[in-house]
Amino acid sequence: MAFPDGPPGWLITRYDDVRTALADPRLSSRRPHLNSHIRASLITPAEMTVLRPSDLLTSDPPEHTRLRRLVAGQFTTRRINQLAPRIQTIVDDHLDVMAAAPGPVDLMATLAQPVPCLVISELLGVPFTDRDQYQRLTAELLSLDRTRDQLLAGKAELKDYLLRLIRVRRVQPADDLLSGLLHAQAGDPTLTDDEIAALAQLILIAGHETTANVLGLATLLLLRPPRLWDTARRRPDLVDGVIEETLRYATVLQFGLLRVAREPLTIAGQPIRTGERVVLHLPAANRDPDRFTDPDHFDPHRPDAAKHLSFGHGPHHCIGDQLARTELRTLLTTMLNRFPDLHLATAPDQIPTHTHRVIHGPAQLFVHVNA
User: Fold this and answer.
1) Contact in structure between 38 and 258 (CB atoms under 8 Å)
2) Do 286 and 16 meet the contact criterion of CB atoms below 8 Å apart?
3) Rounded to two decimals, what is the model's pTM?
């Protein structure tokens, strides 16, 4: 495949090859350029180092292992179970707002975006009252149509915001992830404020943007003809299947993961030289007909949907996958119970989707709550 800012590289699309490559230590996650498989690099490596040091996405062991260990405690099954009642309360409150709406309501603006945003805000320790600022900034960082000056300004603003919050948490600790990282820093002076800010930025973006769009996509897939919403309502045991199949069928990370060969290797019989770039295309892998029968058909009954690669595989498997599943399960189950007659206010092919964004999903999703 051709890259916009350098020599060509390799696009890996088959499920088995992508899964194997995700766990191969010979492929480095350190990116020499920002999104260089999508657009020409606008920010130099030196500028990137200043604005955002390595995080869980862009580091290799042992650095990656050290950083992952710092945040892993916030995403254990025990911790997620403790959060479950609070997640339910947040969902109920937002569904009350939807139920009171006199006409069609935008599910993305009233439910899909604010619920994951509020959950990750509380978990991370970021004030929800600041959501307008950080939602704007995280959306800009996921956009592909920003100019160089816009990218630099947005990255600098978000980093400054998080560093200010770190200084507040240092003197006013709370029961949140930022305070936990600062506590860890007291015993490990090598952990810098910049690294904490980089971890917080990643969790903030991944913690609400992806979940919001998966919910929007799942709702759309259930409400469009042949209206599987009624089937899922009668069969609550299908909710997990709906979630996994949405993650497989409508992979929200629509471009793929960039890796760089640390040493020569061979993938699917193709020799790859040291320094060559490889893109692991998750949407293609999730629709590989050799792995999934009739892959272009959305089927909540699919028995192997959970084998999708949307959360990655290997050392970089998404650390927040259980939190995302818990949020999505709570949202969908409660919506199905509260709104049995939920239906689209717009024809499915008229629903706008994000353009020029790394994350795929509905930009708006207007629905009627009642028949």
Assistant:
1) no
2) no
3) 0.91
AA identity, residue 335: M
Q: DSSP code of 13? A: -
Task: In whole angstroms, give the CA distance from residue 214 to residue 16.
Answer: 24
Pairing of strands 10-12, 277-280: parallel
Contacts of 141 (CB under 8 A, 6+ apart): 151, 154, 155, 158, 205
* Residue 295 to residues 92, 148, 250, Cα–Cα distance (Å): 34, 39, 11
Distances in Å between the Cα of 187 and the Cα atoms of 181, 183, 190, 359 are: 10, 7, 9, 37
Element of type H or E holding 211: helix 211-223
* Per-residue pLDDT tens digits for 13-47: 999 999 999 999 999 998 654 445 555 555 566 66
Decide: 222 and 232 in contact? Cβ < 8 Å: yes
| Chain position carrying tokens 């006409």 | 103
Name the amino acid, one letter, at 338.
R
Q: How far apart are CA 162 and CA 201, in angstroms?
A: 8
Q: Which residues pair with 277 in a beta bridge?
A: 260
Q: What span, in angstroms and rounded, lies between the C-alpha atoms of 23 and 315?
A: 7
- CA dist 52 and 74 (Å) reads 22
Residues 6+ apart with CB under 8 A from 286: 15, 247, 248, 249, 251, 292, 295, 308, 309, 310
Closest alpha carbon to 198 in 20, 97, 58, 89: 58
- List strand residue ranges (DSSP E) for the chain, in order: 10-12, 27-28, 105-106, 257-261, 265-267, 270-272, 277-280, 343-344, 366-368
Cα(276)–Cα(84) distance, integer angstroms = 44
- What confidence tens digit (pLDDT) does each residue in 260-313 have? 999 999 999 999 999 899 999 999 999 999 999 999 999 999 999 999 999 999
* Amino acid in position 269: G
Q: Are 218 and 232 in contact (CB under 8 A)?
A: no
Type of residue numbered 363: A
Q: Using CA atoms, how far apart are residues 348 and 332, in angstroms rounded to an integer? A: 19
State which amino acid sits at residue 221: L
**Residue 333 tokens, joined:** 């189950």
Q: What are 259-274's pLDDT values in tens digits?
A: 999 999 999 999 999 9
